[in-house]
Amino acid sequence: MSRKPEERDEPKLQILCVMPAPTGYRGICRKEDRFVYFRFSKREGFKEIVDYPASDFLSMAHFTETISKFVPTVFFLDEPVDICLPTMESFEEIYRGTTAGRKKF
User: Fold this and answer.
1) What's the CA gap between 73 and 17, in Å, rounded?
2) Are 36 and 18 spatial neighbours (Cβ–Cβ below 8 Å)?
3) What angle do CA 12, 13, 18 make, to 5 degrees?
4) 3-state secondary structure labels for all residues of 25-58
5) Positive or negative: CA dihedral 24, 27, 30, 32
6) Residues 69, 53: contact at Cβ < 8 Å?
7) Distance between CA atoms of 93 and 89, rounded to whole angstroms?
8) How many Å apart are CA 97 and CA 74, to the nearest integer?
9) Which long-range contacts (CB under 8 A, 24 or more apart) does 66-75 make?
10) Tens of pLDDT, residues 33-43
11) Is residue 1's pLDDT more than 90?
12) pLDDT band for position 103 (50/70/90)?
């Protein structure tokens, strides 16, 4: 008997930041004891690019302040979003929760 995707024993991703990319989305999540810079596309799915041990930072705010030198804060969410199974639709919805995603162009 198969379980629903949300019932799997896979680690949850805590999405902190999402920005559009040519073939999908890039972003930052917390996965277990690491902060992970990732990309997501329909063709390749979820790919980790680089990770940073959470123990290297005093708090999530400290990490956000540090990484904001490289990633504009308009792409960060007001509150992290937990997901189990990343999809293009989930990232589209999450992106709309960022300051950049709420702006009307």
Assistant:
1) 8
2) no
3) 160
4) EEEEEEECCEEEEEEEECCCEEEEEEEEEHHHCC
5) positive
6) no
7) 6
8) 10
9) 67/17, 67/28, 67/35, 71/17, 71/19, 71/28, 72/100, 73/99, 74/98, 74/99, 74/100, 75/17, 75/18, 75/19, 75/27, 75/99, 75/100
10) 999 999 999 89
11) no
12) low
pLDDT (tens digit per residue) in 44-82:
999 999 999 999 999 988 999 999 999 988 899 988 999
Looking up tokens 């009307």 gives 104
Question: Distance between CA atoms of 64 and 19, rounded to whole angstroms?
Answer: 15
Report which of 18, 15, 22, 12 is spatially closest to residue 42, judged by C-alpha positions: 22
Q: Residue 21's pLDDT is what?
A: 93
Residue 14 · residue 29 · CB < 8 Å = yes
- pTM as predicted: 0.81
